[in-house]
Design brief:
Helices cover 41% and strands 18% of the residues. It contains eight helices and eight strands. The chain has helices at residues 19-31, 44-52, 65-72, 87-97, 133-137, 142-156, 172-184, 200-211, and strands spanning 10-14, 36-40, 57-59, 78-83, 103-106, 125-128, 164-169, 190-194. The strands form two sheets. Strands 3-2-1-4-5-6 form a six-stranded parallel sheet, sandwiched between helices. The protein has a two-stranded parallel ribbon with strand order 7-8. Helix 3 runs parallel beside helix 4 (87-97). The longest helix has 15 residues, at 142-156. The protein starts with 9 loop residues before the first strand and ends with a helix.
């Protein structure tokens, strides 16, 4: 979205307590130094988690998002919106609350119908973001390496907090459980899969050995 460091603007992140949203919140606040980062979350634990990740304000996505943001009476224009959940559900709201000439970016595929909402009237930009575009089309492939290296250094220096909340075994059962957690919604942070992570069967076996 080409956000300038220190820009006097507000950013809204849809699903701030999820894996992507929680890292985006930290980048927005700690690296881009944005004065206002709003996220959506509904449960007390997800709201608190999102605030700990950098959100200056949290609104409940089960309620009227537009009204809640208006009630914040922000000192800066809401120029940027990052959608990490349910693009088509939130697009009309985004069009209504985004400042003229603002930018809306989504990582979640949808139809993105803009007819009849304020996208054209406000001259808003809409951006699809897919992690695999650069390697698939062979464009600036090395940039992924540089970004991940920089992120690892930031985590090591504790500038960015690790948001990994659950580790699952990289097998069929682990994949099914991970997908189930995403499908049911309300994820807190990131769920990770690894070949060196004990599966449920191994954990139960370990418990039996301890009891024995």
């Amino acid at each position: 979205m080409e956000i300038k460091k220190g820009e006097k603007a507000a950013l809204l992140i849809i699903n701030g307590s999820g894996g992507v949203g929680s890292v985006a919140s930290q980048i927005a606040r700690k690296l881009l130094d944005l004065p206002v980062v709003i996220t959506t979350a509904s449960r007390p634990e997800t709201q608190e988690f999102s605030k700990s990740m950098g959100a200056t304000h949290v609104v409940n996505h089960h309620e009227d998002v537009k009204k809640q943001i208006e009630e914040l009476k922000l000192d800066f224009p809401l120029k940027y919106i990052f959608i990490t959940h349910s693009t088509d559900q939130y697009l009309p709201t985004c069009a209504a609350i985004c400042a003229p000439f603002g930018k809306v970016c989504s990582i979640v595929q949808g139809e993105a119908k803009m007819y009849g909402i304020e996208f054209i009237a406000k001259s808003l930009s809409f951006i699809w973001e897919l992690l695999g575009t650069k390697p698939y089309y062979g464009v600036d492939v090395d940039s992924h390496h540089h970004v991940l290296t920089e992120l690892a250094e930031l985590v090591d220096r504790e500038v960015v907090k690790c948001h990994l909340k659950q580790k699952l075994r990289l097998n069929l059962k682990g994949l099914r459980k991970a997908h189930g957690l995403i499908e049911q919604g309300g994820s807190l942070g990131k769920n990770g899969l690894g070949v060196d992570v004990k599966g449920e069967e191994e954990k139960e076996e370990g418990k039996r050995e301890v009891c024995a």
